[in-house]
Structure formats: structure tokens, C-alpha cells
Design goal:
The complex is a heterodimer of chains A (about 850) and B (about 200). By secondary structure, chain A is mainly beta. Helices cover about 10% and strands about 35% of the residues of chain A. In chain A, strands 2, 3, 5, 6 and 7 form a 5-stranded antiparallel sheet that branches. In chain B, about 75% of the residues lie in helices and about 0% in strands. The interface of A and B includes residues 127, 167, 168 and 220 of A. Chain B: It comes from Lates calcarifer.
Chain lengths: ~850, ~200
Amino acid sequence: MPRLSFSPNSKPDCSPVWLICILLCLSGVHTHETVSVMANQVSGLHQFTWTSAEPLECTSLSVKIRSRDGQTTSEWSNTEILQGNDIPSNEKFQIYPIDKTVPVGSNTTFCCIVEEGKVFDTILYNGAVINTTRLSRRSYASTVVNQGPSQSSGFNIICYNSQKELAGTVLFVGYPPLPTDFVCETHDLTSVVCQWNDTRNTLYGKRGTRYSLNNRYCSRQRKQCILSQWEGNFTLVAVNPLGHYSLTDSAKLSHRVRPVAPTIQNSVVQAWNATVQWQWEYSTYNNWALVCQAELTCHGSKTTHTFSGVGLHSVFLSDLYPDEDYSVKIRCGAQENFWKWGNWSEPYDFKTRTYAPDAPDVWVWMNKDYTGQVIWKPLTRRQSHGQITGYEVTLLIENGQHTDIFSPDTTAAPVNLTQIAASSSGSMIIATVVAKNTDWLSQPTSVVIPLRSTDVEPQAVPRAVFVDGGFPLFWQSDANTTFGYVVEWNDAFCTQNCPVEWIKVAAGNTNVTVESANFQQGVRYNFSLYSCSSEAPELLQRWQGYMHELVPSSSVLLSTSQQGSDVLLTWGEIPLVNHRGFLLGYNIYNSTGSDLKLLADWLILEILVSLGITAVFLAIVTLVCYKKRECIIHIVEKPEWDSSKEALVVIPEEDEDEDEQGMGDEPVDTDEPTSLRYYNQVVDDRPIRPRFPDSSASSASSLDSGRTDVTYTGIQTSGSSFVFQLDPQGSSEGHQPHADLPVSCGGGGGGYQPQMQNRALSDDMGLDSPKPFEPQAASSGGYKPQSSWHLDSPVEARESGDLAPCLGSPTSVASTQFLLPDGDEHTEEKRQVPSAAANWFTSLLSSTKP
Amino acid sequence: MADRRTRGMTGSDLSRTTAARATAIAEQLHYECSILLELYRTKESFTAEVTVADGRLVSVPPPSSQLDTRDKLWRLHSALLQCRSLLERAIAKEEEELGGGMKGDYETQRRMVKERLSLLLINTGELLKAVDGTAVLTPDLEGLELDGPTILFELKLWVYRIFKEVDYWTKTAITTLQSLPMVIAKERAVTTRRARSTRSTRR
């Protein structure tokens, strides 16, 4: 701020109270100060400094002074005048202050002195007009308060006259220096490099902060200063127009060593390791204990290794992989009194040498006709140790050997042992596979191919259940297994040169979870456990399982023939490949007008297995179709029910004639009596009402067909066979799966749930809330087809109203459309039941009502 | 004569190409100058009312219809050379007094204009050589006010004035260069006739 000093000359012994009057010329602004001023002991003079808000150039000031001593006041002194620059002799257009620097938050008053004869207009502060007051005839002032920091080139204050001529000045608003993080270190063990930060810097150019380190000026461009020798104590002084600031740092040189970045010179590279060498910029490092880090990058993956030593200038990198591209960079620090890591070196790239590939994982698949294939898993990049150029497959026969070369993308070699099998007296052939890369051959892997199949198909094929992304398999330890086990899996219905996957299991293990990205829904897989020894692999156990069961992909072809008062229903089996799940049985429905009635649950059905044709003999039912397309059921004879007998309702899948179906080598669901018994126990005895589970489990194809009522039940058990014992009294709660069954489905309620996704099924069926296995509310009422039931013609629609028409033939079958409860719950009761069998059926219905 | 004619035709082709290139550079420079001026006005909060003195900083002979192509080119080249000297000085003074902060668009544009101006000078120099047939002498920069004011606001106005000077002479360069291609051939013929006439007079 402009300061004005007065020196009232008076007697030293006078009263120290002085009255000072300062008149800002012509503005009429008086400033009165009453001050007590002590006399200078040496000169005997009194001195008082008054600071003006306005620059002293703005206008002239007059000053006078008098003293007061108690009640006595002296006369005013003569008026002293300090002339401003607005005097007539100075005609120029001016503005003040000029190029001033002030701290952030301060107030600044500017004044503009217009040219003689010109008229003042405005003052702009950083482009904005500010209020002005007139100080004199030509002088005008403006004050800006609490100023914020200016840009690097400062704020422009421009004064215009009425003719738009201008005078301007620049004001810098900033902060005093405030350096931080001052620290000194050495890179070469001799000189000093000190660094600091100054994040609050707002003044630049000539007004920028100047730094000095131990009284030596530092570069203004970088926040860094270098001294040639370590001095132990360091003082940084920062100065700018608004003030100064000091920081100190003290340390021993040995505690502040931060090595420079090494320069990697070369490397000695092997297949599994490499030695990387570098040079130091300073020879002083040769005797300095260093700790160094090597950051190794391979395919984006980084690993860091640490080494130490005096004058370290190389590192040995082990555990590398052959034929891989690596990049390494090095940084070091002082091993003793570690201070900071030095900078990383520039990355250095190298490639490891090739090496012999890993021995391939080999297995063999043999067909029944002594043909087959030796198969191996392609080597990964990490197993190849170089570019794979091919595979050598050698068949070692007792009389010699035969070698073939296969391209790198081959994973199977066909073998045909027909002739050998006929002529050889030996029992096995050894296949050996060797992988080749550009420079090396792998160790051979051998697998024994049995010439005479000694595998005995397991009688019972337990189920493998897909859990948490895999099939967990368990087995008993086999004493003959010396080389571990192989678990092999493939599509169960594939017979020739099947795509097969396998996993090897160590000898001590008795379980494994089979996982594969190739598992597909609705495909039955065989899982075969082989023991490995010096002899041919021996099949120990086999499982079957679905990753996810689906409804059969085709329906049965139904035909009927009338035999007196009986109707014989016959249908063909669903091709195995279309099962897409474990087939549990067939439901037979009778279409009566708008209703479908489930027959299979309460009628005694006889399954006739002959030539692959399954026949159901309806011993007690006659279906009579009225000419008016209305069908009723006449039950003419009550069945002689003997619950002690084995049930006749047998699930066809287990009863398939293996020999005649040509699938004798394929594992099928067994029909052991024990299992049969369990099937009978678990059967859902809810009669007539086609339940949601049944409906939802109907095959997609049967949904599309309007000509069959044989429907896949969708019920699954986890046992090896599924024969249910009819229990008229029973509820499902009373029937639990046998404890011996390998996998329990859990959940209670009797029966098993298929491995199906409810959501998918509901989507297929258009059901909003699928509850596939939740029993429906009991109702004796019939069911009517959903809206997707298609009438044959509009006439039929008229005749039947909303009800679906009955088909004309007594043996024709209406549809497997899903059934919904009819609004008329008494439909069943209104029907005439002329036979005892019908009464029995009715009472059975009643017993199931809630 | 035959040799001279061959050289003349080659020089004419060269001149046309160089003139076209120089014009394109001048047009680009003019565009970049306008951006620089706008950036400077924004940076310094200069409104349209902030004007600079009318007088030119660059000192060259006044324009005249009497000037031939060579003289017009020489005048332009000289003015642009002075502009570059002024611009370099302005940049140095700005950095000295106010620099050191973050470099932004303004600083980038300022450097771009300086480099483009140098490129234009190379091309006008080639044109001069093509027309005159002699090496281009560096125009005398003596008397050019390169120190700049000491008061910061005056310095800012001085820098602003230099930018405007560059802008003005860039516009002049465009006009001058665009008028050159058709004239060059005529001028060469006139120059040749003059040379003959001079030689015969001396005889």
C-alpha cells in the first residue's frame, strides 16, 4: 500500500499525542488520525507512517499536524502537499497502480487519470465494469475487494475515456510461496538432488517464485536443485513478491541413495531360464550393496522377482517357459538403509528357447469290429514348448511296429486291427504317440489296445447326476490299478468312432468330478471308469447321466385294434436318441368330448414286448364312440386286482429287448425285480387328473400331435430302474426311494423330478406359473383343453360349443393338449358308470379328493 | 539466349507452383492468425473496444501501382520477415514477463502461427529467387522496435498489435500472391526487354 511518512519535528519532552489531518485533494475526504508517537532516541524525531488506500499518484494530498497535551492543543502546522499525477502539467492518460502484485483475498484501489480535456467513461476489471468514485477533476478511483487469484498473465484493469481511448494496467493476485515435500537424495553417491512441490503457485514469469538451496539459486523451470556434494543439511528458500518460505532437510548420504535406472545390455536365454545383464551409469555402484527387482511380463501377466548383491548388475530368471516372449525391466535400491526404489529400466524383450514338448495325453477308442482310433489331447502353448509340427503315432505289435506322422491339428489316428486280431496270438497292441515341435520330440506316451475285449458290461448302470457344473463320480479303490484311472465319457448312443473325452485320475483317488464344456442338454452320456496298469485298460464301472434332461423329441405311433369288447393299444417305441432323458413310462388318456381321462394309472395294462412293439391290452375297457361324435367309456368288467402281484405297468425303456434292438452293448435301464418294486411304490396315484407335471413334461412333439394320447410322464427317479408298486392306499409321502440307490433326488413327496428347467417348459407351454411337480388342487371335475386346442372345423365348433369335439373312431385319440380344470366339477359324477370297475374307479377318485 | 529462354520457362513453371503453394500457405496462416487473435482476446479479456494504434510496426515502402512484380514480392517478403522478427520477440517477451504457467491452446496456436509464417517466408523467398534470379538478401531490420514496452499492459497491447500486424501482412500476402502468376510471365518479358535495352544503350 502507498505509505506516507511524516516527521513532526517537536520537542522531545512534549506530550506524545499528535493529531494528524490528511486531506485528499479536492475530494473533500479528510482522514484524521490521533496517534501517540514516541520520539526516536537517537535523532529525537517523531515519525509516523500513514498508508493510503489509493495509490499516492492518484491525486494530491495535503497534511497538517498539531499536538495535544491534556486539554491543551497546539495550532495546526503548515500544510504539506504531496502532489499527485493529476496535476495539470501532467496531461497524460494514466492508471495506477502499475503492475502490482497483491495477495489473494486483499482489496485493491485503482485510479484512472483522464487526459486533460477528455471525459472519463469506465474502468474495467478483468473485463467487468466496476464502480468508480471521483477523486479529483481528472482522477477516478475504483476498489476491488477480496480478490481471487489471477491468471498467469494477471488481471487487466482498463480505463476508457468517452472517446474509447484507453489506459491499462495489470494486477497479479497470488499467494506467498509455500513449498512442500522438500527432500534431498543422491543418485551417484556423491552429488545431491533436492526436490519439492509447490502446488499453490499462481505467479509466473518475473513474479514467479524463485528458489535457492543452501544459498545457491535453483532452476525456476523444475522443482529441483542439484548440488555437487552432499552437505548433510539442506535449506530451501522460496521467494516471490508476496513473501518467502523456508524448508530444511537433513540426512546422511547413505540413507538417501536412490539408484538411477539400469541400462540393460544383454541377456543369456535358455529354454527355462535367462540371465539378464545391465550396466550402471556410475562406477560408485560397484561397491554398493543393492537390492533389485526384476519385473517379468509374459502375455500381459507380470511377476516380480527380487535379488540383492554388491554392485548387482545381472539377475538369473528361472521358472520361465520355453518358446515364450518375455519383457523384463529392472530397478534397484540400496540394500542397507533402503530409501527408495530407483526408476525402472527400459523394458528389455527376449524369447526363451524351445524345448521338448510335454508328453501328450493319449487314450484309445475301440469299436466292436477291431477298428478304432488312438486319440490324444492337443498340446496347449505352455505344453508345446515350441511350434508343434506334428505327431508320430506308432503301433507296436509283437512282430514289429508301424509309425505314421500326423499334422499338428490332428488329434486322432485311426487304427484297424482286424487282420492283426485274426492272426495275432497276442492279446494287446501298444500305441505310442510322440509330439514334435520345431526342434524337439516329446517323451512318448503309450496306451495298450486290447485285442480281445475283456470288458464286461456292468449289469446295472447307475446314474451320474449333473451337479454344480459337473458329474461327481465315486468308486471303490481297485487293487490292480497301478497307473491310476481313466474316466472316459461320450454320447451313450454313439457306437462308431465316437467323440470321446477322458480324464486321468491318480491311483490313490476314488472320485472325480467330470466337467466339460462340450456337455449338451438332452444327451445321455456314458461315463466309463478304467483302471490303468501294464495291461490293457480294464473297465471297472460305468455310469450314465444327462447334463440336463429334456422331454422326448418324438412321440409314439399309436394304433388300436378291437378284440371283442376289448381294445388293444399298441405303439412303437421312441427311438433311443429321442428320449433326451430317462424314459419312465407311458400315460394313456381317453378322450371323452372335452375331457381327457388318464387311463394308465388305474387300468391294468399289459405290456407286450415283441419285435420292438409295445402293446397295451385294455382288458376291461371298451371305448364306444357315438355316432354323434360323443364318446363315453363303458367299463364292462372289473379287473381282478391282485396287489401282491408284480405290477404290470413296466417302464418300456427298461424292457427293451437288447438283442433285437441291436443295442446289446449299450447300457440300458435295468429291469431288476428290486427296482421294479420301487417303481411301484413311487408311482403317483392321483388318477384321471393330468397334472401340471405330466402336462409340462409332455414331449414337444406330442404337443404338436393331435393323434396320440401317450405322453411322457416326465417323472424321473435316480435309481437304476423305475418300477412302482401300486398302492391304492398310499400317498406319495409313504414311498421313499430305496436307500441303496446311488443318487437320491431328494425333495420328498415321492417320485423324482426330472432335470429340467421349469422356465423353459413354461415358456414352451405358455404357462405363467409353472409348478411342474406341485400337485394340483384336487378336483373330481374333468379337464378341458386349453385354448390352443384346435377344432377340426367351424361346424364342429358350433356343435360342441366351447367343448372340443370327440373324434369319430372309438380307437382314435384326440390330443395330448394340456388340460385345465373344467368349470363343471361334477362332470365325472354325471356320467353313468355301469360296471363295478367303474364304481371302484369312482371310489378311488373320491379317496383322492382333499 | 537459348539457355536463358530454357531457364526462363523452367523458372516460370516453378514460380507458378511456388506462388500457388505460397498462396495456400498464406491463406492457412490467415486462418490461424484469426484464431490466435481470438484466443488472445479471450485470454486477456480484451473487448472489441480494445484497439491498438493505427500506425504499422512494419516498415516497408508504400504500396504503389508502379511497383513491378519483383518489387512487390520484395516488399511482401520484407514485411513478412519483419513480422517474424516481431512475432519472435513478442513471444520471447511474453514468456519472460508472464510465462511459466500451464501451456494451453493459446501457446499452441502462437507457435503454429510462427512456424507457418516461417514456411510462408521460405516460399516467398523462392518466388523472389525465381523472379529475380538472384539469392534473396535478408532485408534490413534495423529500426524495427523489438524491445517492446516495459509496462505490462503496454506490452500486452504491443503483442496484440504484432499479432494484428501478422494478420494484416498475411492478408496482403494473399492478395499479392494471387496477382502474381499471370504477371510473372509478362514481367519476365519486360525485364528481358529492359535488359536488352540497357545493354544496347550501354553500347
